[in-house]
Amino acid sequence: MITRRNAMKAGVALTGAVGGAGLLIPALSSEAQAQATDIDPTTIPKFAQEMPVPETLKPDRISGTTAYYSFEMQEVETEIIPGKQTTVRTFDGHFPGPWIKACSGHRVVVTQKNNLPSPTSIHLHGGHVPESSDGTPMDLIQPGGEKTYTYPNSQPNANLWFHDHAHHVESENVFRGLTGFYTLMDLPEKALGLPSGAYDLPIAIRDARFDDNGQLIYQMNDFRGRNVILANGKAWPYFEVAARKYRFRLYNTANMRFFTLKLSDGSTVQQIGGDGGLLEAPVTTDKISITSGERADVVIDFSKYPVGTNVEIVNTENVPAGVPPTPVLQFRVTRTAADYSKVPAKLRTLPALPAPTVNRNVVLRVDENSADGMGYIDEKVYDHTRVDNTIKYGDTEVWTVSNVNQRVPHNFHIHLVQFRVLERNGVPVTSGPETGLKDTVRLMPGEKIKVQATFTGYRGKYVYHCHMFDHAAMGMMATMEVV
Hints:
Helices cover 5% and strands 40% of the residues.
């Protein structure tokens, strides 16, 4: 089996090279990158660029209840840091990625052509899809090739997204920009009267590392080096808003960084949803926590601010006491506007949890004391030829997931299903955003959670893994087969 470790020992330095076992070899930093001088982030002007709103794509065609799209994965130049051009990897040149809006019960078919220098495999994160369209780590689109994915959308409203999942290179491809938004809507959600249209938009938040020419520097497991914060593809941008309610679908598209987001004036927001769509009721809170791959759906009411007010979103995750939080994005209240939207006290009713039939234990770990470490699930490095757990179709299972590391955080993502969080560290989860449907969940060092899911809809092989992309690329991934 080709692993990251023996690839590095062999001195391989080609992005997306394929070993004899068919496994992708992770990219290593080129000599030019290794010698590059990092840009000083304090020299990047903050709130000097306007945050773009991702483009909502129209289908190439519609036939009955099916919408057809086609994308060309390609490298383009874009301005992330003011005055500098950066090479990024994109779907059809969109950075941040394009935005597909879909409706429950209406299929979406996407043809992806790969014009990048490395293989790809496109995963609809949070999507309930057949194995053939899941974008599994070894279902590769080679450079110059293409693949068509079918998304049945047989699930309620959800804040999905799509990204590369080609094993060992997913980390670099996502770091270089290969992500897109996918909003799944349904009629019950539309009937609630939440902010909509121009007042409902996604925001992808992530970190990155740049050299002094503005080019991205990628190194595996490089958490501390990625010190420039992006919102919708711009470094520390601003966004003009009206003095009314806005719905922001927040996506953490960072490879590894966790965010705990607050408004700089300490005001509260209403969290109305997460990964798997709306919560049962809004949660009023002064902080929003999202780990790599997680989403949070929030409503911010700017009507309390006079026109001319500036207020920032800041990150307080891992900020020591007495140190100012890290800026992310500035809102500028520039005008008034009519507002007929509302946030109802009741948003949805989630189905009752069925009695579980199976209990499993899953243990997450990385080598903490080695720069050339590996990642493990149940003490095994990912091997695409191995099935780690066999699940009976229709079964409801409870998984106890543990992070046994002492210093390194993880999170946990399961393909195919949305789950419910039952317990965190032995304490039942009865309130807050973790009561909703989830597909990705935080696990700090030493933490243990219980999640419950029902495995139905499709049979086949799917993966579960840490969604810190660098950890997954290091081997922290396993395969389940629904039979």
